[in-house]
Amino acid sequence: MKGLLIKDFQLLKNQKSFFVVFIAMAVIFLVTDMMSQDFLVSYVSFLSIIMMVSSMTYDEFNNGLSYLMTLPTTRKKYVQEKYVFGFILLFIAWVSTFLATTGFYLGKGELISLSDWLLSCFMILLCAVIMIQCVLPLQLKFGQNKGNIAMALIVGVLFAIGFIVMSIVKLFDIDLTFLMRMISQIDLFQIIVIMIGVVIIVGFISYRISLKIMYKKEL
């Protein structure tokens, strides 16, 4: 796995122009207050996922994945490395942006609740982790182009389900006051605990699916 990680980080050096644009836009958003702090942390975190996906695209280019499997590695280690690589990139991006935004706004003398801000950013981190867990199996199964289409279809289906549920609620005049009251009583810390549970469950399912896809993948 160590060799695969070194390979992926070396490949990142070939994307220096992307990093320059990426960092420049983040700095502009931060200095000009064009976007909220939350959005900036989300923006940088999810861009790190794009970089992870680009490494998988490069692996599949010109039968590169077939060559990798001739080296002293296994399909299982390849899957594990992609998860680890994605999480490392995400963690670096998240920590860097969190520290930069926090330092910037404290330097400006703006009053912010550090505990609420940290919990909010941690929620963003958990959402990004779930995104990695969803994207990886799709990329292994369909590749970049078809994987993007599959992800868009999944998001579309989720929105459609939400629309249908809301339409049914309005059509039959279902009272959701009690449900909304229950949800409003859940504080951010409890939501994070629930999210951590979701991350663990989704991560286990994602990893098992990714392994199954990789073992069946024709190289």
From TrEMBL:
The chain crosses the membrane at residues 17-35, 41-61, 82-105, 117-136, 148-168, 188-207. Keywords: Membrane, Transmembrane, Transmembrane helix. It comes from the Bacteria. This is ABC-2 family transporter.
